[in-house]
Specification:
The complex is a heterodimer of chains A (108) and B (114). Chain A is mainly beta and 108 residues long. Helices cover 0% and strands 54% of the residues of chain A. Chain B is mainly beta and 114 residues long. The relative contact order of chain B is 0.33. Classes of the chains: A mainly beta (108), B mainly beta (114).
């Protein structure tokens, strides 16, 4: 069956640095979604990517969907303490399978 | 709008007990779903529904029942609780028309089975 994997599992970042988290699916996805979950909170929808090679930006966050629609990435520039949390990719919409997430810790 | 609400927030059960986790949304969303989240893991889909009277199984349906008699409510029933069902349960909803991609999650129910 379909598997969704994320790397790295943990990401320690100094405030102001950039980092990227990666998501890989064992099967082609019709779409992929990204969520953020703060410690003790619930997942919050960030974005959905649908097209091959699609790139979307939300302020300091850049999301990319691979050409083969089997991988995706989230790049955060100039990390802030508000970026702390776990970032999940999931797909496809309707019967989402989530990756295990990348837990981001930001040191001031 | 209250969005997606879940009750209770916390629950402790003994092995073999049954209970129902409640989920309600006031956004008139057709699609509703239940997930469980275990420590250090992503969410896993238990059951989902695309409208009143229509439900289907997700990735981990065993030990759980659902029904959807109204658009607003989507309760999750644990038939005979087991320690392996200790988890945080999230309910979510989204629209099937218009802006279909955004899925709204409830605050979660933290369940412990002893």
């Amino acid at each position: 069956g379909q598997q969704v994997m994320q790397i790295p599992q943990y990401q320690h970042v100094q405030e102001g640095e950039d980092f990227t988290t990666y998501c890989n699916s064992s099967t082609t996805l019709s779409n992929i979604q990204w969520y953020k979950q703060r410690p003790g909170g619930h997942p919050v929808f960030l974005i959905q990517l649908v097209k091959s090679g699609e790139v979307k930006k939300q302020k300091r966050l850049t999301f990319q969907f691979g050409e083969a629609k089997k991988n995706s990435s989230l790049h955060i520039t100039a990390t802030q303490t508000t970026d702390v949390g776990t970032y999940f990719c999931a797909g496809p919409w309707g019967k989402l399978q989530f990756g295990a997430g990348t837990q981001v810790v930001v040191t001031p | 709008n209250a969005g997606v609400t879940q009750t209770p927030k916390f629950q402790v059960l003994k092995t073999g007990q049954s209970m129902t986790l409640q989920c309600a949304q006031d956004m008139n969303h057709e699609y509703m779903s239940w997930y469980r989240q275990d420590p250090g893991m992503g969410l896993r889909l238990i059951h989902y529904s695309v409208g009143a009277g229509i439900t289907d199984q997700g990735e981990v349906p065993n030990g759980y029942n659902v029904s959807r008699s109204t658009t607003e409510d989507f309760p999750l029933r644990l038939l005979s609780a087991a320690p392996s069902q200790t988890s945080v349960y999230f309910c979510a909803s989204s629209s099937l028309f218009g802006r279909t991609d955004t899925q709204y999650f409830g605050p979660g129910t933290r369940l412990t089975v002893l």
